[in-house]
Design a protein that fits this description.
about 775 residues, mainly beta, eleven-stranded antiparallel sheet, seven-stranded antiparallel sheet, 3 helices, 59 strands, elongated
Amino acid sequence: MNIGGATLTGSTKVSFFKGPYKYIYGVNGGGRGIRWGGSGNAEYIGMRAPTTALTTVVTAATANIVAAVQVVAQGSGYFQPPVVTFSGGGLTDGHTGHAQGLARLKNGGVAGVIVTKAGVSYTGRPQISFSGGRGSGATVTVGVDGSLGAVIPTASGSGYTNGATIAFSGVTDAIAEVDITAGRVSGIRVVNPGSGATTTASATIYAVSGGTNATAKCVMSYAVTAITVSGGTGYAGIVPVQFSSISGSGAAAYCTANSSGAPKDPVITSRGAYAVAPTASVDGSTARAEVLIRAPIKGSYRCGLRYLDATAIEDGGPVPSNLSELVTVEASTGVATIGWRWENAAADTRAEAVELWRTSANQAVVLYRIALLEKTGGVLPTSYEDSMDEATLIDPSRPAFGILPITLPSGQLNAYRFGTPPTDMEDACWFQDRAWYGVNTNGARPNTLMFSEIDEAESVPDINEIILQNNTGSQDRIVGLMPYGAMLIVAQERHMYRLTYVAQPVIDAAVTLAGYRGLLHKRCWTTFEGGIYCVDSFGMYAFDGSSIEPLSVAVDNYWRDGIIDFSKSVNFFVQADPTARVIRFHYCKSSDGSIPPRALCYSLATKAWWEETYAQGIGAATVVRLGGKQSLVAGGASGSLLKPNTGLVDSVSGSTAAVPYQFRTGPLAIIDEPTRQIGVLYQPTASTASLTLNVHYNNSATARANAVQSDRGEGAVATSGGVVIDMRAARSALGDSNGYTTARYSGRANDRSAGGDRHLAVDISGSQAAAAVVLHGITVGGVTA
């Protein structure tokens, strides 16, 4: 079968299923299968990956880019990141090829620089400078409170045999004691450091009763007690105050910038201790940094490509192929460009673009998209020149940026999860959040199930496999898949299994034996009102996922006695009729062609069985929405699409010729009852419409001639082919027909006679043309069911 370029080879019995988006998928085990979006041409399922590895050509680097910035002095006083400017390096100032960066602050200083653009064509190392981010023009006056930190003798003098005292100027309430050794000053101990000094204090040593020439120096300790800030513009928020740290440390204070950008209202949070009264400012110091350069592409890289189709995002697209085999590009000394070269001979016709993927330097875990190259003039590109530096490669804001981990943190496939569905599986369905494929056609994998990735019907990697174990004491094979509520019923020829899973089937799938009956093949089951109705080599049965109820005991002879020709079973199928509440098993006898012209019918309402025969073989049937309600539609061997149960000409499309019909009851036991008549209740027709009635005795395939009396004035007339009933409303000049005709029949109901009649079956047939044939019922007297 060829549909818009997608070909299904071999059998044309296709398993269709609806995916999570608009697409319908069909497989038959003889190729890749097709998908169809409701209009236009069908396409092959999945996207084939490139089959040949790409090749690369590198060019040597003659210029450099900025690889990193190393801060050598953080500076201070920054309340917002300063502007980073690169200059020199072989480029004129302001050149568009210069690098760009963002300063990162910490505690008012520049802690680092993020390179946002690596620049191009640097023949030497560029310089970097920082501007802004700080206010300017403010002056700070510091008020201090000084005290004695220590007093140090500078000359020991002599003659101080009776001791000495010491006095201070420039500091209030300072007290110290003088130590004398051998008439000389050997040390001075501060008892009270005093306070109030704003400049250096002085000390004078006095003898008690003698001694001269001893001198001392005061060592001061200043604490910050007041700050005055004036002037300044361009400040913002909280503005830190910086104190000189040459002679001490520990003072801390801040200001708050007002609406005019001037720092005001200083707050001292720590007074500190200084040997010399400190100075302060709110301007801070300028940061300094050095630039490191390298070739644009430097390191070891892994490169690959894949194809994309044109599936819309809202329909689950675009659908990618698997990534090609990755190739390694060694650029340890640095290169300017990587030239990509590849072939597209294996690309599908639905491939509309090529994606190029490369790792960052010296890692093989995550790929970044280099480029997305669409078809030009209907032809996919085959080359690309790649000069993307490292910073640009990993920049999420650049056009065409994409990130593709080769595997997920859980270990699951990612870059290689887009494998095409298996070509040797002829049955498929959508169950929970995945597509499932089964029923192997070549015998290599008779009990294997394959499944897709979540919501990706066309992504079926080889590792997504479950093998059904044969634990029943006999070998069997999968013949059908049946989604049923929270479980997937996996049918073999002689067994049924339940499959359930939570998240990842390969990890948490549970498969349990559900029953010791199976299927003829994938088309011999149907569902109706919560039940599954199946046909296998032994009959029809109902299945609810755990228990089995045989249904065909009354007609087991069809299976047992060879009435059903199983050599033609490939075309058998089962279908529920929701309008009539009937399950039909379409099959062939040995005298039939290969397409079933008949069906065994089971009424869910009355539990009765009967057989229907049709004027042409019925290849398939399904329930669709027509005219606002669910209706049964069948496909005839002639190519017509038939709609049963309408009471009208049953051709929906195709031929509009008269449609033959035929109905035969099951065997009815004859009893010794004198009232032997067959009544037919019908709707009188406006034009000629004839119905032929025959009687078959004792399961005979041939009707008995002259068994039905006719010509009794009720519209039933004997012919060589049976009794013909004229259903016209105006068949008699005496008045319109009331739509009810009876015909008496004969029979030798004698239990003592070997030649007695035991059963009869009533056969009615005709042809519906312009006049609609509507039969309301048939009554048979003298029999019991």
